């Protein structure tokens, strides 16, 4: 359970909540972790184990999607900065 | 072995029954498709570790299916396997984006460095040009200062043997005829040449663009025609000498006035001496 919860927390820390696909996955992970806790409380540890397998997979996917979004944002910023630098260094044509 | 139709029918029915009990769960089907897609994409080269994890998850789901069929556990494992495959794809895309970002940044740095070098070269060129220009200006200032000193010195020297006056027609340098010529002659005395050297120096340094007229004047003694010719010859003699000392010939002319423009009383020796003169009129640049 700790691994699933840690993965969900990490996903949120890198911005999963601001990326729709990642947010959906981390929400699913949360729900499955909550369900697993309920199953444990009911004594069904085996069901809880597989719910946590699902939760961890969802949370780790959310983390990966959040990282991807961050990388795409960085790339966009670099491209914009490159264009700005290039424009600034290009001699302007005479009017 | 020959199979009887009845046995074949039994086997077929058994097969149908087995197929019916072994219908692949949707989660496992999705997991297989997701893995196939991931394995065919950039994850294979960029993120083989996560792809391997996805394959292990898929194998576990497959084994569960083999063992338990379409059970909840199989569906859970299939669900997780699909996410693992999607995770491998997302991480591969992340690595790809990061590599592209690094490429853009590296190119940007290279461009900035190239631009910086070009700017440095241009600055150096401009700096050298300014230094050269400064040197030229310093040389010019020095040259002018020295020329002004020489002209001032020459003017001071002229003032020792000639009168210098500023009139409306220009600066008038008056040289006594007795200093320049033997009586009745137009040949310059050797001492006159020394004095005219200083005049020439002052005129070339002081105002190189001005024009000059050398005017010859006599007293009223003797025949007017002779005095006219003598004054013209003396003016011409002074003019030619100044040209020989570096004054451009097109800047200087000569004119004789005989006794017509007196400055003193021809009835007295002193007045006549003052009338016998050569004037160099320096006309300011118009």
Tell me about this structure.
The complex is a heterodimer of chains A (95) and B (286). Chain A has 95 residues and is mostly helical. Chain A has one domain (2-72). Chain A has helices spanning 2-13, 20-41, 45-89. In chain A, α1 (2-13) runs antiparallel to α2 and α2 (20-41) packs antiparallel against α3. In chain A, 40% of the residues are buried. Chain B is rod-shaped. Helix content of chain B is 69%, strand content 11%. Chain B folds into two domains: 20-99, no CATH class; 149-283, OmpA-like domain (60s Ribosomal Protein L30, Chain: A). The relative contact order of chain B is 0.08. Chain B has nine helices and five strands.
Question: What is the tally of helical segments of chain B?
Answer: 9
Radius of gyration of chain A: 21 Å
Low-confidence stretches of chain A: none
Q: How many distinct folded domains of chain B? A: 2
As residue ranges, the low-confidence spans of chain B are 1-20
CATH class descriptor of the largest domain in chain B: Alpha Beta
Mean of all residue-level pLDDT scores of chain A: 90
Q: Note the gap between the termini of chain A.
A: 68 Å
Q: Provide a count of the helices of chain A.
A: 3
Q: Output the CATH homologous superfamily of the largest domain in chain B.
A: OmpA-like domain
Q: Major β-sheet of chain A, in short?
A: none
Largest sheet of chain B: 5 strands, mixed
Sheet-strand content of chain A, in percent, reads: under 5%
